Amino acid sequence: MENPDAAAAEFTLGSTYLNTASCGVLPRRAVAALEALAGELAAGRPGGAGDYGTVGAVRESFAALAGVDTGRVAVGSSLATAVGLVAQSLPPGAEVLFPEGEYTSVVTPFTARGDLKPRYAPLEGLADAVRPGTALVAFSAVQSADGRIADLAAVREAAAAHGARTLADTSQSAGWLPLCAGDFDYTVTVAYKFLLGLRGVSFLTVTEEAQRTLRPLFAGTFASADGALYGPARELAANARRFDESPAYPSFHALVPSLELLAETGTETVHRHVTGLARRLREGLAERGHAPVPGESAIVSVPGLADRVPALAAQGIVTAARAGGLRVSFHLYNTPGHVDRLLEALD
Question: How many CA atoms within 13 Å lie on the side-chain side of 272?
């Protein structure tokens, strides 16, 4: 399905929704899956709240989207939990490098320990700031605040040159920005943004080398090799599944069809569609005397216009205020007409 218009038919928007960076919209097929599960639960579903097969299907779909083997993918519930697992694996005194203004859930699991050495650098100079004493570079591939895209190749190369590991948060990029999770030691991703899912699903990808030093702090039934229900697990899974948390089944049920839609459409098609809309918006803003943050991101930030968000919402245009700017973000359900309506409203 290389026609974004065909994918757009999967959605029923009740507004000019331009806020995927906060929360994505569920496609019809995901809503149908949720309704079917809710009906079965109301009738007394024999399998209970869900089934583990959906977790496996989601893991496989995300692995394909992220370009890694399924054995590198652990599933969880939130970004902070996944990042926290990595944070707790570091030795006391380890230096962790972050971009300035990085999303809180990427930073706080490290700083909350109290015995690590956080250091900060401008996003544009992140690669240059890596030094021999750096243990980990933790950053978002696409910044939540303003949509800036990190120089992924430069950070990866600098970290490798200095023996540092990398953790990339792809929550604001997975689904529209082509990248390979295997290029980094760890990636963390939540599903409720550009993956068009619900809260309650997160992904942690871990290279085979990094798996040897990551501690399975949340190991339970789903992390065991044999699924034993009672007593200590005799053996944990041999791959990244040993880092799994107990799954929120309804969220996984909804995510199966959403990831199928993204796979059918293709990341390159999504990328071309959303960056085209973002380019149209940036050009229109510039013509009107505004100065949006430059780049080729699906997320557009306009500094100084955060106060316009309530008035736009009153007109049925959903955006967000972040770091003093008006933040707009696009997905498959958006059209050039949405861009033009926003520009007219700003006029």
Answer: 9
- Per-residue HEC secondary structure of 214-273 comes to CCCCCCCHHHECCCCCCCCCCCECCCHHHHCCCCCHHHHHHHHHHHHHHHHHCHHHHHHH
- Classify the C-alpha dihedral 70-72-77-79 as positive or negative: negative
By percentage, how much of the chain surpasses pLDDT 70? 99
> 């033009």: which residue's tokens?
340
pLDDT for 1 equals 55
Element (H, E) at 35: helix 28-42
Measured CA to CA, the distance from residue 39 to residue 184 in angstroms comes to: 41
Between the two ends of the chain, the Cα-to-Cα distance in Å is: 36
* Residue 65 phi, psi dihedral angles, 5° rounding: -65, -40
Residue 278: per-residue pLDDT = 98
How far apart (Å, rounded) are the C-alpha atoms in residues 317 and 310?
9
pLDDT, tens digit (0-9, with 9 covering 90-100), for 74-99: 999 999 999 999 999 999 999 999 99
Burial of 192 (0-12, 13-18, 19+ CB in 10 A): buried
**What is the average pLDDT value for the chain, to the nearest integer?**
96
Cα–Cα distance for residue pair 143/123, rounded to 1 Å:
9
The enclosing H or E element of 56 equals helix 52-66
What are 78's two structure tokens? 């939130």
Q: Are 333 and 344 in contact (CB under 8 A)?
A: no
Query: Average of pLDDT values for 238-245?
Result: 96
Give dist(CA 140, CA 24) in Å, integer.
18
In whole angstroms, give the CA distance from residue 227 to residue 223: 8
Which tens digits make up the pLDDT trace of 181-232? 999 999 999 999 999 999 999 999 999 999 999 999 999 999 999 878 899 9
pLDDT tens, residue by residue, 261-274: 999 999 999 999 99
Q: Tell me what pLDDT residue 2 has.
A: 63
Q: At what angle do helices 79-87 and 104-111 cross, to 10 degrees?
A: 30
Give me the amino acid identity at 32: A
Q: What's the CA gap between 188 and 79, in Å, rounded?
A: 6
